[in-house]
Design a protein that fits this description.
It is a single chain. The chain is α+β, with helices and mostly antiparallel strands. The protein has helices at residues 5-15, 19-36, 45-56, 61-72, 103-115, 144-153, 177-186, 209-224, and strands at residues 80-87, 93-100, 120-121, 131-139, 160-164, 167-172, 194-201, 228-233. The protein has three domains: 5-72, Orthogonal Bundle (Arc Repressor Mutant, subunit A); 80-129 and 203-232, Alpha-Beta Plaits (2-Layer Sandwich), CATH 3.30.70; 131-201, Alpha-Beta Plaits (2-Layer Sandwich). Helices cover 43% and strands 22% of the residues. The model has no long low-confidence stretch (mean pLDDT 89).
């Protein structure tokens, strides 16, 4: 599957020194998920997924509860889900997912981030075809063989299972996300190290040192934007 997922998450966590930024992003996406359906995760699969993901980032319970309570209220704050595609230095590819209450502001900020860091915005479809939507679920306390066996017994199809550091990482079709989690929960797993629906590049590229420095600055700039939820790319950032 290319790069190691744990390495990606560790690098991201190292950059996310301001945890309040992470919590603010989760507060927004939890609010939207609860507002679009029932505020009960057992009745709202999208909210259930968001909360599972929030756990892997140690989002405090009070942030989660506040967002859900806000969704239950009379607040009519509307957000649009947007996807931008573009190119970084040396033709590297980037996908940006945003959640915004001001489309014009977000588009301008994302475009400026690309332009100021050696990149440029592309049209819809110019990059996404080189990525695969993928469910990524990580657990500890199991080997890859044990994970494969229990998933087969549960009749859950997966793309790949890899042992990465101290975790087993399962890669599956997006519609298998909850099935994979339920199979592990039935086997006694109570916590997940990774719980993501992501876009994985079909092929990673390695940039020369100067281009990589510029690319990492582009990533930092995009991830710092309030409206940006996720940034996906095809660059191998190394160990």
């Amino acid at each position: 599957m290319g790069r190691k997922w744990n390495n990606i998450k560790e690098k991201k966590a190292a950059k996310d020194k301001n945890t309040s930024r992470i919590y603010a992003k989760f507060g927004r996406v939890i609010y939207v998920a609860a507002k679009q359906g029932e505020p009960d995760p057992e009745l709202n699969q999208n909210l259930k997924f968001v909360l599972e993901r929030a756990k892997t980032y140690n989002v405090p319970r009070n942030i989660i509860d506040r967002a859900i309570e806000k969704a239950k209220g009379s607040t009519e704050e509307n957000f649009d889900e947007l996807r931008y595609e573009g190119f970084g230095p040396n033709g590297s590819m980037v996908i940006v997912d945003a959640l915004t209450n001001n489309v014009n502001r977000t588009a301008a900020e994302v475009r400026a981030a690309f332009n100021k860091n050696g990149g440029n915005m592309g049209v819809s479809g110019s990059v996404a075809y080189m990525f695969d939507a993928t469910a990524v679920i990580g657990v500890q306390g199991k080997t890859a063989d044990e994970a494969l066996e229990l998933l087969m017994e549960a009749d859950v199809d997966v793309r790949d299972i890899l042992e990465e550091d101290d975790s087993v990482i399962v890669y599956a079709e997006p519609d298998q996300f909850h099935a994979v989690q339920e199979a592990f929960k039935t086997a006694g797993v109570t916590e997940f190290t990774v719980a993501e629906l992501t876009m994985l590049a079909q092929n990673d590229v390695t940039l020369p040192e100067d281009a990589q420095a510029k690319f990492e600055k582009l990533l930092d700039t995009l991830e710092d934007l309030e409206d940006v939820q996720q940034v996906y790319h095809n660059v191998d950032l190394g160990e």
